[in-house]
């Protein structure tokens, strides 16, 4: 009990009616918006493998996530959602974060079953042991298939989407504004349908560099509501990604994220554990190798392996008809707006190893930003 043992991450995702997925990751894999985006794409890919060949997904993707700013309730995952719509993978992406006290869903029940299944294992020495035990003993429910995968990497969507040059504010709670919007819907402009007022009056454009862009039916617009069940929008629909800007990123440029540094003390304790578990009466030699390899890779900050993302080249099969969205009615818990990211914010998006990629904004953009203030 006095020995330190690494804590694995496990992320669950349910593709309703098709497959339930479990992703197991090592302790130095970051658990953030990059992980969330990677898991969503991997789950869609797993679903397409289960469905009949040549099946196309529906026009709308609805994702219910934890109500935490660390993983999905943040501007980085919002940009990822807008990318899915702007590159014609879906016509609409709905993201819902239930309010505190109402955030449990079917994934929590499946986690309980997974935990009970893992407790019955006689010994689990590395990540693959966890995955294999779940594959052999966890029974999916409601006719779904089971997909268990060890993720040795996550992709750096945050740095990859930085060329959008967008910074959101107002998505998450802060001390001065404790209430926020829990329902985000990213839709193509033409799907707004009938909203009182002309299109120019309805869609709000905060971004100084987009003021001269002509409206396009495929521009991505964000519709915000306080709750999923709210009958009123929280504010005017917000332009978040012109279709011309969506094409500024190339899937070939997506790279793995950086691993987390466990720290010298943690690596020392894990190596001590590795030595102990290999002795009599345990003889857990696989666990010893796993712990030593984990520490060696983390100490050298070895680059995470690249993983292919076939969903990045996926496109919808056909186009659906525009719908009537309703009348314009606002109730604002916290106003959401867009701007050009400041150099420090851009540095945060690109990561600490990409300082050379951070460039000063053009004088015209800086002047426009100053005029906005």
Task: Explain what you see.
The chain has a five-stranded mixed β-sheet with strand order 3-4-7-8-9. Helix 8 runs antiparallel to helix 9 (285-299). The model is unreliable at 355-368 (pLDDT under 50). It has helices at residues 33-50, 75-86, 106-119, 127-137, 157-160, 199-202, 243-246, 264-277, 285-299, 343-350, 363-372; strands at residues 9-15, 19-25, 60-65, 92-97, 145-150, 167-169, 183-188, 220-225, 238-241, 337-339. The protein starts with 8 loop residues before the first strand and ends with a helix. With 373 residues, it is α+β, with helices and mostly antiparallel strands.
Write a brief structural summary.
It is built from eleven helices and ten strands. It has helices at 33-50, 75-86, 106-119, 127-137, 157-160, 199-202, 243-246, 264-277, 285-299, 343-350, 363-372, and strands spanning 9-15, 19-25, 60-65, 92-97, 145-150, 167-169, 183-188, 220-225, 238-241, 337-339. It has a five-stranded mixed β-sheet. A three-stranded mixed β-sheet has the order 1-2-5.
Distance between the termini: 57 Å
The neighbouring-strand order within the major sheet is 3-4-7-8-9
Task: State the total count of DSSP E strands.
Answer: 10
Largest sheet: 5 strands, mixed
Q: How large is the radius of gyration?
A: 23 Å
Count of helical stretches:
11
Strand share of the residues? 5-15%
Q: What structural category do the secondary elements indicate?
A: alpha+beta
- Report the average pLDDT across residues: 87
Q: What is the string of helix and strand elements?
A: EEHEHEHHEHEEHEEHHHEHH
